[in-house]
Records
---
Amino acid sequence: MTATTTTQELDRMPAEAPTARRPVRGGLNRTFLTIELRRLLRNRRTVVLALIMPPAFFLIFGTQGDYRTTSVGHGNVTAWIMVSMAVYGAMLASASGGAMVSVERALGWSRQLRLTPLRPVAYILTKIVVAMVLGLASVVVVFAVGVVAGAQADASVWVTSALIAWLGSSVFAAFGLFLGYLLPAENVMQMLGPVLAILAFAGGLFVPLTDGLFATIARFTPLYGLAELARTPLVGGGWSWVAVANLGAWAVVFVTGAAVMFRRDTARV
């Protein structure tokens, strides 16, 4: 009698709800990172923009006349242009990698990922890491071409300027994400190239900034801070707090913009 009653009571008990499984590190793992990196490298337009255009511009603008024999700080003019083109390449690669999220949204890949345990933070971090990998490759290619083309600088300049150009370009990965969520896929890549070229001119990557109205306006543009900081180890003279403030302010703007657009996009699902 007692055994029968216990069995009936157990049958009436509600089934225990399954425990939700939380992925380790929010789903951030090497497999997902490798897949994202392969998808990025299959985009020939992005690879060409990041790995061919910057060294090509360096060879066009940085090896003219007596640039190799004219000194600038701890190196020569060719090295000055090499660092500028490394910043341009890292920025181009990082922004392009971030902007690819627009294509994923159009294909429905972003919606599919939201059905998995992958956390949004892990997704954003993965996109930034992939973009930074391509940015590092761009910096290495430009510096390798610089060695062959006659760029000369102290050993510390090569290392420090390369690290600043690469790490500082993470700001533009957030810029690419912001544009990727803001614009449709058919427009973002067509707009990104001209926008980045204008920012490069305004920030003094292609033409040295001198005193005057244009130089004053340039201090408020997104690339001014990163370009000045990356060239500081070469030209010397100490760090510019204006450049640090410029880079920090635009980092806040782009990261906040990307976060707002990401939340607005996820709210639709």
Note: The two ends are 54 Å apart (CA to CA).
---
Amino acid sequence: MHTWLRPLVAVLVTALFFLPLYLVLANVFKPGDAINASPASLPIPASLDNLTTVLTRPDRLFWYGLINSTEITAISVIVLTVVSAMLGHYLARTPGPLSKIVMVGLLCGLMVPPAVIMTPITEVLRTLGLMGTVPGVVVINAGYYVPFGVFVFTGFIKTVPIELEEAAALDGASRLRIFWQVVFPLLRPAAASVLIFLGTWIWNDFLSPLIILGPASGTTVTVGVYRAIGEHQSDYGAVFAFMFLASIPILCFYLAFQKHFVKGLTGGATKG
């Protein structure tokens, strides 16, 4: 590729990815009539009516969705980070065929689309009495995303010198204490990567909350956007405002952990 062509391709690709974001931001601050007439124009003059409409809805759809999404995402990523780190440490430090078989089984789990196993999942949750509940969604998230977390932590733990753990063991520390006080603090970059990836996936998940919580008994921000579209098909301003407000929490979450993101992903590749 010619040198002069690279910046041109970079600009075109960047514009392509930025276009949906621009349309959302531009239409959030325009009245519905202006959106229908010219969806790509700038919001001049800007208006906050769409945001006010979403935040003051009588059914409090956005606020209920925000509470449920925050609760589901926070509990799920905490459980996933702890379980994945402990299991990844065990598999990375345990030689033998059994750990390799378990790792291959977990990696196979990454290849199963969630929609394929949704029917047996609902049957299991109904048997356990978790259908239509937030704990039911958390259990499904924990079970489905553990393989990804284990994959990230196992690769990073192999870069941590085992001599640190051996020295702590000689001082009389138990294996659990070694993990929490020696190993886990060193896994901060990997933990940040797991938090960002899984936090974003779980926050934006639409299918599991829609089926497990049900469209009438519960909602998340993504299901809330779907319900807002269904109830106000002509009010595109409210729909864009709902999408904008739903994106703010996960964007702040990403910005808080992004400095550790690349370091965590490349840690296993750059260390011996």
Note: The longest helix spans residues 61-93.
---
Amino acid sequence: MIEQLTIPFHYEYMLKAIFVSALIGGVCAFLSCFVTLKGWSLMGDALSHSVVPGVALALMLGLPFAVGAFFAGLLAAAAMGFVKAKTPIREDATIGIVFTSFFALGLLLISLYPTGFNLRTIVFGNMLGIADFDILQAIAICGIAMAVLLAKWKDLLLFCFDANQARSIGLNTTALHFILLSLLSAVAVAALQAVGACLVVAMLVTPGATAYLLTDRFGRMLGIASTMGVLTAAAGAYASYFLDGSVGGCIVVLQTTLFLLAFAFAPKHGMLAARRAGRKAVTTTLREVSA
């Protein structure tokens, strides 16, 4: 039995997949706490899809696809900000227009100028076939992103919680806005290889949302989300060997399962806790009325 369970560790490609998945899962989960607090879930979805034309252009020019993807993400974020500032259109509509336009442009470029790069790799990821260069690229992106997050997490926390208060105490909220967008674009690029453009938003939102249900303290939320991100990503990559399924699919299903458990059983913010609190409030009210 134990010998059967250790089979995935005999293959180099599985060891690479588990290691890189855990690395990306941890960084995405750490960042997801800020995304959840700021309410930027749609922004993460938009940026993950908006990187596709950057990938296509980078491949056409013979550059690493991460370079094109990163700058395409920043360009998309700038386009959203410009449209929102210059028109009365609501933010959700602005995000929808920009990210679908970028995604469509990417699909058009790839269809007009085939480069041999499989479109499925961008859309659904290909962790089991990850190359050594892509591993180094993911390590570099995750290392830089974590260094910035650890150095600026208190400023980013205040900016995400209340931008007006952050501005009133002298913080440069424009720079913090740009830093958070840049981190979101960079981490989305790193996660693209693991789960693809369709599922990357789940890794950038679900761990933070789950931890948000479990604690009211942000430091503890970072710890819970990061641990969950690392463990579910490694376990998802490991389980994909036995299930013969998509690595990204396994990771996101695991994370969604934990979210549903927290949604139902979280001690303070879960559904059952809310029902208990509601019944207790009704009982207390009835006792006060009868007294």
Note: DSSP finds 13 helices and no strands in the chain.
---
Amino acid sequence: MNKRLLSAITIIVAFLAVAFIVTSKPNTQEKKSTYVPTVGILQLVTHPALDQIHHGIVAGLKSQGYSGKKIKIDYQNAQADQSNLKTMSQKFANENADLTIGIATPAALSLAKTADGNNPVILAGITDPAGSGLVKTTQRPGNNVTGVSGDSPLQQHLDVVQQVVPKAKTLGIIYTTSDHGGEYNAKNMEKLAKKAGYTVKMYTISTTNDMQQVAETMASQVDVVYAPQDNGVASAMKTLINVTNQEKIPVIPAVDTMVKDGGVATVSVSQYDIGYQAGVMAGQVLKGKNTATYPVKTITKGEMTINLKQAKLLGINLPASMVKEAETKGEVFK
């Protein structure tokens, strides 16, 4: 084989090799469009309000194009067990989840600690994100955490107390000592109620197992009970109602699902909407939005929710204006 022929063969082989590499390598855009992100959702415990947030998150992600085969969602429920929170958060880290979402403050805290400033964490239904140390400020979170706060409309809740039980003098407030959001809401309501002239008595539970005994004491000492947005109290709501019903003491809770479980009335922020907005934010972050400069969204607008069956059981005539508002713009349980 002469040198000229050998050179020609070498050039052809080199050309074919380069062509193969160029045509077989996926371009960046193609790789980006086929990537399926993994999202870990960690819920503190099963109760109707948190379940609604979960459903809202999935719908919010779907609105951003993340559903079906375009996303892998790993949903975990810790059932109020702190060790489960830690184990499940680590599971997300081990599977390299692109983003995690915490439903309720303890779940969000566990995810943030595990992420350690790296992968993004979205909050869903967190009452006091800055006070709990999850973000620097709600307007400028400053790190890998942002999300949606469901701050309770406390003044509106107090207005409901005054309308439902106008002659009440002593208000009992119950919250869970390990629930930062519950304590935050309870103590802020305490200030408002004292300013309005009520004698306020505070009661606490450590776990839902405490509810029966604490509720029995409380029901004998107060005219009306306020149950704040608190995961422990919400989980034990039916136990609380069983006790207060025996003493004919009305309970004014913070959210609609607690009214359904036996509360008389409230102005409720939609837990589904909180979850939906968190899902939308998660979708935006997956698309590249920076959590550090993505302000926490706070939802405070609520709707009147009443339980006519419970009011009748306790011999309470709800104001006609309240009933009309619930029937036209809110929610009525019968």
Note: The mean pLDDT is 91.
